[in-house]
Amino acid sequence: MTELNKKQSMTDFYAEPSEVVLTNLHSSVEGLSGSEAQNRLTEYGKNELAEGKKKSLFMKFVEQFKDFMILVLLAAAIISAVVSHEIVDSVIILLVVIINALMGVFQEAKAEQAIEALKQMSTPNANVLRDGHTLSIKSDELVPGDIVLLEAGDVVPADIRLLEAASLKIEEAALTGESVPVEKTTIVLPAGDIGIGDRVNMAFSNSNVTYGRGKGVVVNTGMSTEVGKIADMLAQADETETPLKNNLNDLGKFLTMAIIAIAVIMFIVGTLINGTSFVDMLLTSISLAVAAIPEGLPAIVTIILALGTQVMAKRNSVIRKLPAVETLGSTDIIASDKTGTLTLNQMTVEKLYDDFQQKPAKSVVGTENLSLKIMNYANDTKIAQDGTLIGDPTETALVQFGIDQKFNIKSCLEKEPRVGELPFDSDRKLMSTVHQLANGKYLVAVKGAPDVLIQRTTRVYVDGQEVLMNEKQRNEILFNNADMAKQALRVLAMGFKYMDELPQELTSEVLETDLCYAGLVGMIDPERKEAAEAVRMAKEAGIRPIMITGDHKDTAEAIAVRLGIIHAGNSNAVLTGAELNEMSDAEFAKQVYNYSVYARVSPEHKVRIVKAWQQEGKVVAMTGDGVNDAPSLKQADIGIGMGITGTEVSKGASDMVLADDNFATIVVAVEEGRKVFSNIQKTVQYLLAANLGEVLTLFIATLFAWDTLLPIHLLWINLVTDTFPAIALGMEPAEKDLMSHKPRGRSSNLFSGGVFSSIIYQGILEGGLTLFVYWFAIQNPAHTALNMPELSAQALYNLQHADALTMCFATLGFMQLFHAFNVKSVKQSIFKVGPFRNKTFNWAILLSFALMGVIILVPGLNDIFRVASLNGTQWGVVTGASFSIIPIVEIVKFVQRKLSSQKVEEAVIE
């Protein structure tokens, strides 16, 4: 952006007379000359959005290695290869890390398309005045000072100060969030901070002209436009760290410190107390540290998240970034855009008031109803061959109402054709059409603002008759107009009169005076049918819904009440963008809990709202479908775009896209997100309890100078018992009470909810039972000097030790598989959650049991793994010790539930 362009982008053109704007831009109503336009194109650059920096695939791959857990694993792999010479371990760890990185790159390859999508929205051509002639040029060749002509159907090619506006209406929902097209004028607005939606003398880039025509001067192009500012916000927005990413980083730091501490203690004890050599003890300590790291955890977490994306895709939630699956489960706040998300973004007739009765739109009013006829006659909507309605959304709503009431507008206009009209004018606030009747007379159909039309009426149509309007009737009409307006309905009035002759001049004084009042019609952009139920379900799950819109305060409040976001009469819970501007960030943060609805907000406001909740430690999900939502979608912990009505910009900035645009799908996605996190917790609990059992087994064995497990045993146990069951635990069905819990929020972690204490006592249990079996085997050998007198003492000891080593190895491996059933629920009994509900889990356990057994039972393999064949008694001890972890953990869980229940009862009594 050049310095001049920067200066212009900060000018309040809406507060300056058009002559001053033209003078400042060195332009005129005749437009620029071709040479001047070319000079300015060189000075300002093309009217297009700058592309954001693209990350190469290599950089995306490198960024996957920034996680602390990944760095720890890489360090472990290097230490294992260089110091311990465990090449197999190193290769496995490196493969796990690389596969994890590749999956991350694959999932996020298309994550940065928001700026490109914004660029593609530009209209290809624009009609401009150059050298006094009208030309059609590519919109990227527009420059400040160009005079642009606008008409219905055009996309505004740049930010324009309007010089002329004839019944001009522009739909700005994608930019401001306001569902109703804005009536444009050329009036000079007061100086000061006026919201985009209220700058009625401006037309903004990428908005749509729905009605009328206009002419204006280009004041900003490219990145200086309002859409360009949004693009710049997107480019500068920081990516928020997901709770899962933070949890895994915290877990990696905790494990590293714990493992280093254990390894140091083990090294000191081994060298100073047991007298083991410095080098041997160093290698043993490093081996222990490497064995203690759950090298498969990052890959398993990635797989669980990927499986979650598949489930959610089947339920109409398309995940663009893997961590978004889990982030949904921790959501405290759903900040939802109103237009097109909670509502249909489609104006709809809701009430009709005629014959002094309010009637719901669903009631049958009859095709002869005069109000119905007038709202369809005084209407410029076009009906395409496929039945699509083309025109201003307010007018198409009236025609759709007629279609729903079986009113055949085409047939009626053939019988009573339009022979004259007065187009809508923002000063008159009326539109009139003249129709020739079969009896030779003419019908004047008028619709417009109720307060204006009522002033021009002298009669009222009641029970099929025209009667003089009295003051009581006038007041009743005005009362019902106000009543419908309070319900956030956009109200129009219908009037008519009959004329014997078609006037020579069709003027407002001739056509729009001495009218007969026919009725009122109330319209609204209605809430989605499923949205209110989704809001209720979100509240039950402890999630607070927040509504954000560019609409006016009354409309926002009415829709929020209908959805159940706020209670009727609670207008204090509604904050406007202008009121938000008066607050500092610190002041707003203190009051953010007071507001559930935000009206007349800009893109900057939306980002402030999201940040304020995030500063309160809340995990924020933001839904939206417009260009104006993109910065806040990117700022939020999880941005949710709309797949059908959403712009490509909003989808590109989102972490998740709703394929069906159904707000209720978010609640389903939250449940899936909670399930995913719960399953990740189960996996962490399973893996860390297993690794703690291994660490304690090796650590205590070292203290007693026992030779319990060899490196190959640890490698095989980690490969067989950690991988398949851990992945299968990620596919566990959701527990029944999952959605009755409050959101865990940003402060919780993978150890929350009793997971940490479970890891500790279950790891101690695994290590203790394994060491007990080793001790039992040594104390009760199957090979003795009595039945094998021919063997030397050393040979006999080797056989006894081989049996003890095998039993120790088998017990630890099988016990971990049995323990996998325990972690199906942290607190509930496995018999309540169903031990065999997960078929994938069942097969994974069977496969792991088979792989553990085969290396002990199959000759040749047992030699490779340095294990011996066991007799029936020994297998009985191994099986009993391994299985005992299930009843022991069940007893502990039972005691925990009783103590927890007792605490709740005591709290209630107090």
TrEMBL record:
UniProt xrefs under Gene3D superfamilies: Calcium-transporting ATPase, cytoplasmic domain N, Calcium-transporting ATPase, cytoplasmic transduction domain A, Calcium-transporting ATPase, transmembrane domain, HAD superfamily/HAD-like
InterPro entries, A to Z: ATPase_P-typ_cation-transptr_C (IPR006068), ATPase_P-typ_cation-transptr_N (IPR004014), ATPase_P-typ_cyto_dom_N (IPR023299), ATPase_P-typ_P_site (IPR018303), ATPase_P-typ_TM_dom_sf (IPR023298), ATPase_P-typ_transduc_dom_A_sf (IPR008250), ATPase_P-type_domA (IPR059000), HAD-like_sf (IPR036412)
Annotated CDD domains: P-type_ATPase_Ca_prok (cd02089)
Keywords, ordered alphabetically: ATP-binding, Membrane, Nucleotide-binding, Translocase, Transmembrane, Transmembrane helix
Transmembrane domains' residue ranges: 68-85, 91-109, 254-273, 285-307, 684-706, 750-777, 841-861, 873-895
Keyword Cell membrane: no
Bilayer topology annotation: Multi-pass membrane protein
Main location per the UniProt record: membrane
Domain called Cation-transporting P-type ATPase N-terminal: residue spans: 12-85
Superkingdom, taxonomy of origin: Bacteria
Record SUPFAM superfamilies: Calcium ATPase, transduction domain A (SSF81653), Calcium ATPase, transmembrane domain M (SSF81665), HAD-like (SSF56784), Metal cation-transporting ATPase, ATP-binding domain N (SSF81660)
Subcellular location: Membrane
Name of this protein: Cation-translocating P-type ATPase
Source organism: Enterococcus hulanensis
